[in-house]
Amino acid sequence: MAKRNPGSSSEIMRKLPTQERAQRTIETIFETTAQILESEGPAGLTTNKVAEKAGFSIGTLYQYFPSKEAILTALIARERRRVMDELDALMESAENQVGQLEPKSFLRQFIRINIEGLGSGRSAKRAMVRFAWQHDHHEDITQALRETAERIAISMQRIHHPKLRPPTPAMMFVVTRAVIGAIRSASLEKSPLLGSIEFEDELVRLAWGMLSEQDDA
User: Fold this and answer.
1) Residue 15, Cβ neighbours under 10 Å: how many?
2) Same domain for 160 and 96?
3) Is residue 129 scored above 60 in pLDDT?
């Protein structure tokens, strides 16, 4: 039997939004939760405060989420899915443009998506991401890393670009963990480098050195 993903929205939400109004309600709850995390930290986050600041009754909030932990888990899971969708679209595009592919440009786009999704962005989003790293939602993060590494390996095998080394499990493990690990550290340390072009350049240089057949960085 396949292992169930504890981060799936169907398991952490009391009901799934099927109408536009319900979807707007969920988005407002998410946005308000991120704002409270930014301004007051995890200790200041309560379901009552989220409902009050969002302009809903606590009963409306409880229709969707049974606890503040459920809101946070759903919010983190949504961001993870969004990042994975963007990475999938990028890699599918690369596979369809093998002849015109510039591998270093592709690598930069890949790293930029990860930086924006897992660390930078508006301050409220940074606070939410930092909370996720601090509380180490280990199963979700580990699964995302596995999916990313496997998806990249499949793409690289299909691309067969002469500048890229044939992917191996060890290579994909090291490069994905190196990139994500640097982003995680920058997020937790509230580094001003996060989101800067200098930070992105260094990650591109690091990953290129691992992935390229010849070092022309």
Assistant:
1) 10
2) yes
3) yes
